[in-house]
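Why should sequence recovery work at all? Because a backbone constrains its sequence more than one might expect. Tight turns favour small or flexible residues, buried strands favour hydrophobic ones, and helices have their own preferences. The token representation captures these environments compactly. In the example below, the structure is given first.
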């Protein structure tokens, strides 16, 4: 008899090819989910979905419509439940229950509609509003943002001089990155860490709520850059990349009450890191997009 009343999505099963850890997690997932359903007295209430690192199952508990999220253990998501607990549903999906040992969470159920379905500048304003609610003092368990930025900036500084990234961009980003790492204001607030249009869903108690945080203790100005590089085809289709990028940048900075210069510095640093990773992954279009954003916010 099958452990679950559904099959794991084929695309999720394919993640077993990512390596031994993934293969073990996928193999054990049906039993893990079955145990959670039984232990938490949950009833499956729809077809499962998945992201890059998790299975999400619609369920009910005592008639309440919720979702069970089971996560493949990974560094970025280690403190997701802690962040959601800290927010208490203010600006983010509400955490009902969590089992850190099994990397499982019971969450309120939101709609499938995300910010990718509304005009992009309106979406930037929505995110700006959320930032004001999410950026509370960080709990002490979170890793400081500067720990990651220092490492990535050192890697950027070591990029070969003949890499397809203008040397002046590398030098500027390394200088800014190291200055931000040394700045005490670069740590201390609870950051979502991955707040793009697809990670904000429509809700019932609030029009829009953030999901899937990758929390760190950091600087609110760090959160601007993903709004510039996501929905990139729309930037290209506009025919005026510079204006399209700057409109997004100024909308979120102005509506969130952020410091424009500091937000710009973080965009330069983040886009230089992103260009470095695109070079490593053999993605020249990603390098071009990152350079375009760096130029646009500074012109």
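From this structural description, the recovered sequence reads:
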């Amino acid at each position: 008899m099958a452990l679950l009343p559904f099959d794991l999505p084929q695309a999720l099963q394919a993640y077993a090819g990512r390596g031994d850890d993934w293969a073990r997690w996928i193999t054990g997932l049906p039993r893990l989910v079955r145990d959670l359903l039984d232990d938490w007295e949950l009833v499956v209430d729809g077809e499962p979905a998945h992201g890059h690192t998790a299975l999400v199952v619609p369920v009910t508990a005592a008639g309440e419509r919720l979702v069970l999220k089971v996560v493949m253990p990974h560094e970025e998501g280690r403190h997701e439940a802690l962040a959601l607990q800290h927010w208490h549903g203010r600006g983010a999906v509400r955490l009902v229950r969590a089992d850190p040992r099994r990397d499982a969470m019971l969450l309120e159920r939101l709609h499938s509609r995300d910010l990718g379905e509304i005009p992009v500048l309106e979406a930037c304003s929505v995110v700006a509003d959320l930032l004001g609610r999410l950026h509370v003092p960080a709990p002490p368990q979170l890793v400081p943002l500067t720990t990651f930025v220092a490492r990535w900036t050192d890697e950027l500084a070591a990029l070969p001089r003949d890499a397809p990234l203008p040397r002046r961009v590398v030098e500027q980003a390394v200088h800014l990155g190291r200055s931000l790492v040394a700045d005490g204001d670069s740590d201390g607030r609870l950051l979502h860490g991955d707040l793009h249009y697809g990670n904000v869903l429509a809700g019932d108690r609030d029009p829009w709520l953030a999901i899937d945080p990758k929390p760190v203790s950091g600087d609110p100005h760090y959160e601007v850059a993903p709004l510039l590089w996501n929905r990139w085809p729309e930037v290209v289709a506009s025919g005026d990349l510079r204006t399209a990028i700057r409109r997004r940048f100024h909308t979120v900075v102005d509506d969130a009450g952020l410091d424009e210069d500091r937000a710009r510095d973080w965009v330069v640093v983040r886009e230089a890191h992103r260009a470095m990773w695109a070079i490593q992954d053999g993605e020249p279009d990603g390098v071009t997009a990152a350079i375009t954003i760096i130029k646009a916010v500074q012109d």
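A few observations help interpret the result. The beta strands are 43-44, 49-50, 54-61, 64-71, 95-99, 104-108, 189-191, 200-202, 208-210, 216-218.
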